[in-house]
Design a protein that fits this description.
Length: 189
């Protein structure tokens, strides 16, 4: 015996409501698989907005972290840097060689102080399961790390340019690993 359409419709609505209750309502956006956070490379002592010669050298070597044979890090799918300001274009300059090597554009529309907007964008689901690299100013990296749902391993030192914080997302947890770049003589281990 066939059921009247109204009963089929009610059954469908009931199943939907049960599924909604079981899933907790709206599905939560999935984070990227990995986010790499790096500080811009070395800067001049005279407050110029660009990298110094050692900084340009480090920037030129950063692609080696992701390219065979020496590269051990997963290649990023997306690149972000702070927006240029009158005081600095260093985060963008730091990843320009990586952008060229991987043929990826750099998104640099977000201001340094607006790191919460970057975190919201990265965690909004658009980059789910992807690998993202962010080049930022060291003073904001710990706060950005927190905004990304992870715990910063330490306050980023003023004179440190050779570290990578890798945030991995698995089973709803964000884990930070502090990694050395190891690109230049004297880099930390």
């Amino acid at each position: 015996m066939d059921m009247p359409p109204i009963f089929l419709f009610r059954r469908l609505i009931l199943r939907f409501l049960i599924a909604l209750a079981v899933c907790g309502g709206v599905a939560q956006a999935q984070p990227p698989a990995t986010i790499y956070l790096i500080r811009h490379a070395e800067k001049p002592t005279d407050k110029r907005p660009d990298l110094n010669p050692q900084g340009f050298l480090r920037a030129a070597l950063i692609p080696n972290l992701f390219m065979p044979p020496a590269g051990t890090l997963t290649k990023p799918d997306f690149l972000f840097a702070t927006a240029r300001s009158k005081n600095s274009n260093r985060p963008f300059e730091t990843i320009m060689p990586l952008s060229a090597a991987l043929n990826l554009p750099i998104s640099n529309e977000i201001l340094d102080d607006d790191y919460p907007a970057l975190a919201k964008l990265l965690l909004g689901g658009q980059f789910a399961g992807k690998v993202v690299l962010v080049s930022w100013h060291h003073g904001k990296i710990p706060d950005l790390t927190t905004a990304l749902g992870a715990t910063p391993p330490y306050k980023w030192p003023d004179t440190q340019f050779d570290r990578i914080w890798r945030i991995d997302y698995k089973d709803g947890n964000a884990t930070v690993t502090d990694l050395p770049m190891g690109l230049l003589p004297g880099d930390s281990k």
